[in-house]
C-alpha cells in the first residue's frame, strides 16, 4: 500500500503518470549521519539541512542579501521538480520541467532576486509589485513571493501554468498571482511594477516591459548581447530615462510569443 510522507503533501495528477509509491527520500551526498535517523520523517529534516547547505554555498559565491538568502532557505525546491530529479533539487543546476523548459539554477534565481532588491528605490521603499515573465514550475515565483509585496507571474505554456498552480497550492502563498498569457506584452493590469524579471531570453527588450516599469523600478532579463551571446541585462528606469547595464553571460531558454 502506498504511504504518503507527511513532508510531501498530495499532488494532483500531472501529465506524466506517476507510480503510486511514496516519493524517494532526499538522499544527498554529505548528508549521511545527520543524526536524525531515528526521526519518523527524515525527508523534511534532511531537506532543511540540505537547503541550509545550498544557502551557505550561495553566500560563499557572493550572494549577500539576507532576505534573498532567507527566501532561498525557505522555499523547498524539491517540491517543484519531478520526483525522479528530487535528489538533484539542491544542486546548483537547472533541471528539466517538461515541454523543453527548465527550472533555473538556484544561483541565478538568487542572483536575479538580489539584483531586483539592489534597485535604489527598492532599497529605500522595499520591493513592491513584481512582474515575472516565465512562471515555469513556479519556483522563482515562490522565492519572489517571499521578498516582494505582490508577484504577478505570467507563463505562455498552459501545461506549465497549470503545473505551477499545483506546485504552489500547498504553499498557500497568497501574494503570487499566476497568469496564462504572452509575457512579451507584459501584464498591464498590474502595472506599474517596481520590478520586472524575465526567466526567458529574448532578442530585444519589449517596449511594453519598459512602459510597465515604474519610475525608480528595475528590470532584470536575459537578452541577446553583442556577438549573439546571451547576457544578463539590468534596466533602471529613472526620470531621466532608461539606464542599461550589461552583466555576465547567461543561458536561459528563449522568450517566445503567443500562448500554447
Ligand atoms: N522561473 C521559472 C523558469 C522557467 S523557464 C522556474 O522557476 O521554473 C522560462 C519559462 O519562460 C518557460 O516556462 C517558458 O515557457 C516561459 N516563456 C517563454 N516565453 C514566454 C512569454 N512570452 N511569456 C510567458 N512565458 C514565457
Would you give an account of this structure?
- With 260 residues, this protein is of the alpha/beta class.
- It has a single domain (21-249), classed as Rossmann fold, CATH 3.40.50.
- The protein is 28% helix and 24% strand.
- It has a seven-stranded mixed sheet. Strands 1-2 form a two-stranded antiparallel ribbon.
- The structure holds S-adenosyl-L-homocysteine (SAH).
- The site of S-adenosyl-L-homocysteine (SAH) has 25 residues, from β2, α5 and β4.
Comma- or semicolon-separated keywords:
binds S-adenosyl-L-homocysteine, 28% helix, single chain, Rossmann fold, 260 residues, disordered N terminus, 7 helices, alpha/beta, 24% strand, two-stranded antiparallel ribbon
Small molecules bound in the structure, each named once: S-adenosyl-L-homocysteine
Terminal CA distance reads: 38 Å
Q: Which CATH architecture would you pick?
A: 3-Layer(aba) Sandwich
User: For the residues shown, what is the average pLDDT?
Assistant: 86
Helix content: 25-40%
Predict the CATH topology: Rossmann fold
- What order do the helices and strands follow? HHEEHHEHEHEEEHEEEE
Amino acid at each position: 500500500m502506498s504511504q504518503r510522507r507527511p513532508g510531501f503533501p498530495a499532488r494532483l495528477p500531472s501529465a506524466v503518470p506517476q507510480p503510486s509509491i511514496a516519493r524517494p527520500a532526499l538522499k544527498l551526498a554529505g548528508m549521511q549521519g545527520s543524526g536524525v535517523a531515528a526521526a519518523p520523517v527524515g525527508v523534511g529534516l534532511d531537506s532543511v539541512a540540505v537547503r541550509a547547505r545550498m544557502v551557505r554555498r550561495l553566500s560563499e559565491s557572493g550572494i549577500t542579501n539576507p532576505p534573498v538568502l532567507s527566501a532561498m532557505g525557505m522555499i523547498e525546491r524539491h517540491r517543484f521538480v519531478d520526483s525522479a530529479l528530487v535528489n538533484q533539487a539542491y544542486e546548483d543546476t537547472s533541471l528539466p520541467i517538461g515541454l523543453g523548459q527548465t527550472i533555473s539554477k538556484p544561483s541565478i534565481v538568487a542572483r536575479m532576486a538580489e539584483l531586483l532588491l539592489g534597485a535604489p528605490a527598492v532599497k529605500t521603499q522595499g520591493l513592491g509589485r513584481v512582474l515575472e515573465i516565465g512562471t515555469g514550475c513556479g519556483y522563482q515565483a515562490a522565492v519572489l513571493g517571499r521578498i516582494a509585496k505582490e508577484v504577478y507571474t505570467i507563463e505562455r505554456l498552459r501545461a506549465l501554468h497549470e503545473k505551477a498552480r499545483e506546485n504552489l497550492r500547498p504553499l498557500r502563498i497568497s501574494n503570487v498571482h499566476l497568469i496564462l498569457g504572452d509575457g512579451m506584452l507584459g501584464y498591464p493590469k498590474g502595472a506599474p511594477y517596481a520590478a520586472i524579471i524575465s526567466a526567458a531570453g529574448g532578442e530585444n527588450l519589449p517596449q511594453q516591459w519598459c512602459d510597465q516599469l515604474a519610475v525608480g523600478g528595475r528590470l532584470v532579463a536575459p537578452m541577446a548581447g553583442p556577438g549573439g551571446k546571451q547576457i544578463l541585462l539590468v534596466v533602471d528606469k529613472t526620470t531621466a530615462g532608461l539606464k542599461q547595464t550589461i552583466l555576465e553571460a547567461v543561458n536561459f531558454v528563449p522568450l517566445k510569443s503567443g500562448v500554447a
